[in-house]
User: Fold these one by one.
Assistant:
Number 1:
Amino acid sequence: MRCLGVYVHIIIYVFRNIDSIIMGIYSINVLTTTTIRYGGIILSLKTFEKELGNIVKKVVEEKLKKGEEIDEDKLLSAIKGIYSKENLDEYASPIYSTLKQTTPKMVEEERLIHQEFESRLQLRWLDAFYDLASIIKISEETAMNIIDEYMEEHAEVENNKYSISVTFDVLMKLYAKAIVISKEIYTLLKSGFSDGAMSRWRSLHECNVYFRNLTSRYSDKGFTDDLICKFIDYSVVEDYQELTKYRKKDDEFKLNQIEANNIEKDYKEVLKKYGNDFSKPYSWAKSLFPFKNRIYFSDLENNAGIDRLSIYYKQASYHIHASPTGLYNSLGDIQDERVQKHGYVFGPSNYGLSIPGQLTIISLMQMATSLLLLNSNIDRLIRATVFQKYADNAILEFDKVQNEIEQEEIEESILNTTLY
């Protein structure tokens, strides 16, 4: 190992304070962030700590054999001194300085390694990725076309400013958010992070569920406008709940009093407008479930007609919250007893991209189709059919690659078992 020439002078209080058991200052030559030179021998910091304990123990035993007394209070005090905040800071400073100099090179090496991995992954999943990227792009272009049409036909212009309906604004914001999330998922998949992609799909699924519920009775303009107004007003409830939670968790939480007063005022006004039950979860959707006392997200899924995806929604929750199920059932691991698993995964995997990729295609295709069919014509009907064709093919492509990788791993594992 290359000597960095950094010297840390650690005063060993144990040796100074135990009746001159060992006197002096030990000069420790730091070779790397984890090693030191002691007596001409290179030791790890952990080994040095162990050897230091052995030396103290040995010297103490020898003194006791000779009948000499040991001041226990002084001994304990000396040992504690080694781990004092001041000494730990002194030990850490040269290590930190060394890391500041060397880690940029380490990071660049890691970046190049990951770049090579991404290139191989891109080649392996090429057709599936092309289909996913194409669906995202077509979905985005579809939105842009619809916005252009709306601005030409429905937007009002006053003082060179366009005015659009609240309903159109909310629906397009939801759709735009879905596009952004889909791009995030695509980026994660290209880097081999299937669990992260699955977690982001969870948000995409929520966008889809909300969009389809808000437009479930789109032909009834009055009903839809009222529902969307409640959807917006429910943000007041969320703001108030967040404020209350902060105050309960942190007594020292400081918030501009004017802002806090406004939140409380808006909350009271919205409850006065819709009733105290409006504070319940998903109460903005009460008109969709007039006979339900309490609304759950699963109710919204059922009403949207996509409750078959609820099992994947639950699975995505495991990965978000680092539950035991999420820890032991990563999408990047092949769940087959014939495939031997060793160690821990600290990075990406080229396996497990199929499910989040397929789900993203399904959810985005459903939202795009819903948007197209709000005001359908022959052009939009054809576009919806194109989306379905892309989705059907992409799902097969993702399955194909996933199955190939799984089969290769199983065959390799069986071969290794046979050889050894």
Number 2:
Amino acid sequence: MLDSYPAPVLHDTDNGDPAGGIMARDVTVTYRNGHTALHDASFEIPRGTITALVGVNGAGKSTLFKAIMGFVPTARGEIKLLGKSIKEALASNLVAYVPQAEEVDWAFPVLVEDVVMMGRYGHMGFLRRAARADHDAVEAALGRVGMSEFRKRQIGELSGGQRKRVFLARSIAQDGQVILLDEPFTGVDVKTEEKIIALLRELKDEGRVMLVSTHNLGSVPEFCDRTVLVKGTVLAYGPTETTFTHENLETAFGGVLRHFTLGGDDLHHDEGDTRELRIITDDERPFVQYGEKRSASPAVDATLRGTGHSGAPEEDGDKKGDFS
């Protein structure tokens, strides 16, 4: 029953031009068992942007990815990628995917360079014989992600961060213009996360559109221009600064998040600065919000905007911090 889903609280907060990016209109996906995993989902993402896809497990993030890649049919609605239908975009090799670790058989004996070469299959002929241009594209992609020296290594021998970089290299070798990344920071240390973010920014500057499914709330204001919040439908979308708010996060996560509030008097040497600090976490990298500077110490306003701070402590120099 669709009535069991929450009604959208907010839609477009974005005045950007979505032409040539990702456009979803009233998308509904119902599986064969009758379960409607996503209903009436609408959002628009312009080219040259990085967008976070945020929501609890089971909110419909994976279903949305599958719909964009044509793995599941839509019961109604439409999706356009770079102004093309899904079928046209896939046939043109425009859509690339960086999977979760759980989706890959790491025991399968395949070399790093062969994984990256898979991104070139759509550019090859029927027999999939690699031409000089394909080898050059693989070489350039491996160099760009800093994995050239591992080209002859078995994929299963790599660390979590190295594996992510290999699949990013596959997307680059493919020349994907729409890149879907499913939890790219899971199992990745802070230094590798920073390298991945730097690479995503480069790809953004090249005009590609990236949709990043992530539980890493603290990183979202840091590198995502836009945010799409989902919970059975799209609750809100638009620029991160106006969408990634306390109120919207509460609606999207429905009590899953934990809160810590530190009084302004304990944080600031300036006696006139009594802002409070709110930390919101789902046990990954926390999201930090500052209240407005006031003369008293009231409760933090529920509509505070994220500032982009990501104040997670680090352990052993390379692990994400956690407020527990």
Number 3:
Amino acid sequence: ERALSTVPVTPPPLTTSQPQVGPGRDTIIEIEARVRFDDLLLSLPARENGRQLIEEHIRADVLRAHAYEPRHRILLSGPPGNGKTSFAEAIAEALGLPFFVVRYDALIGSYLGETNARLRKLFDYVRTQPSVLFFDEFDAIGKERGDTHETGEIKRVVSFLLMQLDQLPPYVIVVAATNHAELLDRAVWRRFQMRLAFPQPDRKLLEVFLDRVISGWPETPRMTVQKLATRLGEQATFAPKFDRLAQALARDPGGLELRADPAALAPERLLVFEVRGSVNNFAAAVQRVPGLELIDEEELGSDDDKEPVAYLLVPDARALAELLSLWRRWNADQLQFGETPWRGVFELLRDLRPWGPQDRVQRIDASFLAEEIEERGEDELVPLEIELIYRASEVQAQAREDEVRAAVTARGGQIISRAR
């Protein structure tokens, strides 16, 4: 305690104060806006639209002289931590307006009609002065009214909220943020004149951010800003997917095997790795992990990337555990001798997903077959290849092949040849 008492304490940058006395004041807190818009790292659309919004309100008199009003209802959507709250605060700072943040704990009531009454007081209060009103997690009160799981009270709250938004004067800027835009009522979407997406930052934005942070460090890190930005971007994208695999392993450590029935495949039993470009030594990397099996490898074409390669892997419990360990060691930059081929795989990883219907029949294959069938006569056979991925006993494999043969024959087809 004596040591702590000697340490100077700097107040946090966001200090709160109570708004002026009046009905509705207990449902909001006023935050001193200190975030500058020019300091934000935003996507180009968010930055341009933010500047336009500020300019519209600075030059509101010019707009009104031409019978226009500045836009003042803004919806921000995207994952948490990407700058939605800072964007709203920066708008208030740029315009020199009070920044009010809605307190849901004081707004949402437990009795019938209580929430609407508090909403009315809230909006009556903010109408008394130019301000920025910020609703975080807006889906808490703006949910889809057609949802059968929602109560009648929630639907009444949404309807009342829509009416209040319509009646707000242009000098009150209402900014709503949500991490779950799909939950919002469609009519709520239409009430907002500006809708901005806040996706995960791309590598360039991450590089700028990291450069700002690292420039203040006393020592230069071992990893370059560019490499660190790439690593962080991959971590944000793929960490949840690897975490899901870890949970599956903990839940069912003994049952991670390819089943006979493809429809019964658990997602974790067959994985698809997509990478940017070809990884020549990927097959060798797979062979070094006991139990990990490379089933197929193919090049896929697209407009954006002409050489993505998909790798299908069948892990058992031991192999999956090793795969997770490799991922964690790569993130910690601790891959050991003989594991370096995995560095190329993880660095070029574009997608990791469970094997699903999109991997059984590619769209281009379906279109090709449709064209082939149309070009041929009614009695003319269309040659096609059926590839079965089956890892089980010889007796079971033969039984399944007989089922396929019977199904093809029953539909007027023929098995021309087979190979194993």
Number 4:
Amino acid sequence: MISRRKFFSNAAVAAGAAALGAATRSVKGGERVGQSPENPEKINDHAQSDQQDYPPGEPGKDYTPVITPNGSTLPFKVVGGVKVFHLITEEVDHEFAPGLRAYCWGFNGQVHGPTIEVVEGDRVRIYVTNNLPENTSIHWHGVFVPSGMDGVGGLSQKTIEPGETYKYEFKLRQEGTYMYHSHCDEMTQMALGMMGMFIIHPRNPTGPKADRDFAFMLSEWRIDVGTM
């Protein structure tokens, strides 16, 4: 016959073991989800399932499109309710001023990269094709994204090798003015121009609507005479 003290002691040990097992399963499950960039839909659904679904925001209807002086806005298409963008990292022959040119690194043929415009609540899918001679990855600075979509090469994803295309996908849970940039050998790649604006318009804006909206990205450059 087991004593009352022994009974509760065994029960406590069993309960603790069960809790430890559950915690272990939870941690392993979280790691599998958080470290699977090959399945971004699963990551996003797991991390952002509490978010209400909205139709993709439309320029001119849901927001005043931004004007980027000496730049452009990255076009998109809607596929199954998802805004799909395509960024191409590549070397760019950039003219800073008449007669002052240099080979830089940028996106889609320009430095800085094109402005990405989205609306709070949008789900976005951004393909990044690497046409550079070295690996890269893209970070969405200040934007709330699942770990697997954060673009930290060697930590949250494998870096994108030359010639490869990588898919980022996440739902936007905030509004504001942000940026995207290389997150691989940043001191070199960002210094060569690998950055751009990432603007999230509010889903339900308050206050007067802007007649015109401008986006400026400032960056300091040192170009020695004769550089090319």
